[in-house]
Amino acid sequence: MEDKVAGSSKEVMNQTEKLRYECEWSEIDWNITERAVFKLQKRIYRASLNDNKKGVRHLQRLLLASKQAKLLAVRKVTQDNKGKNTPGVDGVASLTPIQRNKLSNNLKLNEKATPIRRVWIDKPGKSEKRPLGIPTISTRAEQTLLKMALEPEWEARFEPDSYGFRPGRSCHDAIRAIYGAAFRKQAYVLDADIAGCFDNINHQQLLKKVDACPKITRIIKSWLKAGIVDKGFPPKSNESGTPQGSGISPLLANIALHGMEEDTRQYLRRDLMDYCKLHRKGITGKWQDTISIIRYADDFIVIHKSGDIVLKAKAYIAQWLGNVGLELKPSKTRLCHTLSQHEGTDPGFNFLGFNIRQYPKTNNKKGYTLMIKPSGDALKRHSLKLKTTIRKMRPVKQEALIKTLNPIISGWANYYQYSASSAAFSKMSTVTFRKLWKWALYRHPKKGRKWIKTKYFRTHGKDKWTFKTIQGQVLRKHYEWTFRNYVKVKGTRSPYDGDFIYWATRLGRYATISKRTAELLKRQKGKCGHCKLFFKSDDQIENHHKDKNHNNNAIINLVLLHTHCHHKIHGRGVIDKHQIVEEPDAMKVARPVLKPSAGGDPRT
Questions:
Q1: What is the band of 604 on the pLDDT scale with cuts at 50, 70, 90?
Q2: How would you class 336 by CB atoms within 10 Å of its CB: exposed for 0-12, middle for 13-18, buried for 19 or more?
Q3: Cα-Cα-Cα-Cα dihedral of 459, 463, 469, 472, to 10°?
Q4: Which of 104-118, 249-263, 307-321, 437-451 has the lowest mean pLDDT?
Q5: Rounded distance, CA 370 to CA 367, Å?
Q6: Neighbour tally for 445: CB within 10 Å
Q7: What is the rounded CA–CA span in Å between residue 30 and residue 389?
């Protein structure tokens, strides 16, 4: 009898403990948590700007020991990250609120790393495969926690023309920087790629560059040396590289490549000054500006008017990369000219899916015009994706095909709308129409063309050949997107500088943001509709339908929320009227973002 009572009391205690953990996670005030973490990150950023190494180390220790930082790291890994359901070697793919709370309570940086799981994914448009290393969820949380401490320090130190895998920067910032460098001059360009950047970085040189305290150095080393489990085989040792797939790898790769731009300029200092004396009437004060070195992850370009200087830069960079265990990839490294042929090489170059080239123009004082447009390879890849998607979906209904194609078309057009892409958009619209027409003919081989046209293509506005259902679902066309001017990020600005107004405003200008989302950001003043915190560049943003009807996509029915805020609202079962504060009708217009009053918290 006593055993039964003891057993029942244990069950009651377990249930009570579960309820306590669940309540604790659901009742966390994320506003306070994010403010506390950001205040420390901002102080780390400022201390690094002031070259206060001792202060940086002290603040990083405070952040790593902070309960709020551990909670935020667990939330990012288990709720916000797109790969949150990808398991590591332990097979754990997702966590319940109880498990999240326990993980945050037990989270600490461990010097003994668990092996990572190797996954091979296809490279877009290529037969090669890219290796990914997937750590366990607990290791991912540890890496996210350490990244939160290291990133502000290095954001204050990174070079201004480094754009890959950095918060608040994108491919379009790099393209805009190239436009600024090549707009006013005919120049030679070194278009280069680093061979196997993530897989070949020298561990010893990387740890030396990170220059962290001994404990953090040992922890990073254990992650770098962690065994790799590939398709069930025993773990293999990892002697070089930072495994792609772990949260801290992009930051470590950027640290390894940090200094290439400035070191190259200093090496070419005498050559650049001599060039200025010859071509700038003896003015040598701004010799650094004559050469541009723009890097996005492992791709970079060097731009200068002199071909000899560009070749010297290539030789020095190859030597510089050798010191960190890297080398240039010969098949993807070429020297060209922006306007004319060079040694049989066509003018212009491709970078991040864009073709950048100068074209002769007689009615222009410069004699040329600079054009940035989608590259030929980008058009082929997109055309092939449309073709294979439509072909695979021959058995499905028109509604499902429209639902699948619209995100593909929107994503591609959003990315390229900041370039001279009207001809490319027109061509892709024609390609899409031809594939859809073949799709319709295949489904109804015994029907006439007029019948097929009436069934699948309807009038929408002035267009009589819109792929549209009888219920009103419409397939978007590429030429609906028009050119938009992109505003490049300012110099060495960073999200850790505390100017939330600037960064929240920039969110509406990112290529990955649709026009509707940009409009909603203006209406909400760049803030989440639930927690009222400013959206950051690395936040996952989702649309919430106020009336719970997902077919009602009217802009007055939508509110932008953080992913975790969206889950929190729907997880309660009932949406509280006080959770989302709607603006009065008079305020529901696009308006500029206003700065908070003096003395107010910029996050609220």
A1: very low
A2: buried
A3: -80
A4: 104-118
A5: 10
A6: 6
A7: 41
Closest CA to 150 of 77, 75, 61: 61
Token pair in block for residue 405: 């194609």
Q: What is the mean pLDDT of residues 277-281?
A: 76
Say if CB 31 and CB 531 are below 8 A apart.
yes
Q: Say whether 303 sits in a helix, a strand or coil.
A: strand
Distance of alpha carbon 55 from alpha carbon 73, whole angstroms: 23
Residue 479 CA to residue 463 CA, distance in Å, equals 12
User: What are the φ/ψ torsions at residue 441 (nearest 5 degrees)?
Assistant: -65, -40
Strand order in the sheet with 354-360: 349-351, 354-360, 368-374
H or E stretch covering 37: helix 30-49
Locus of tokens 């120049």: 187
Bridge partners of residue 349, in order along the sequence = 356
Alpha helices in 329-458 (DSSP H): 376-392, 398-416, 422-443, 449-456
Q: Give residue 21's pLDDT.
A: 58
Rg (CA), the chain: 27
Residue (of 431, 596, 563) closest to 78 by Cα position? 563
Q: What is the CB neighbour count within 10 angstroms for residue 16?
A: 10
For the chain, the distance separating the N- and C-terminal CA atoms, rounded to the nearest angstrom, is 58
Q: How far apart are CA 107 and CA 219, in angstroms?
A: 14
Cβ proximity of 282 and 227 under 8 Å: no
pLDDT in tens, 99-144: 888 888 889 888 888 888 888 877 766 667 777 888 888 999 999 9
Please tell me the predicted confidence (pLDDT) of residue 311.
95
Torsion angle (degrees, nearest 10) of CA 443, 448, 454, 455: -20
Question: What digits encode the pLDDT tens for the residues 201-257?
Answer: 999 999 999 988 999 999 999 988 888 887 767 677 778 888 887 889 999 999 999
Q: Tell me, what amino acid is at 233?
A: F
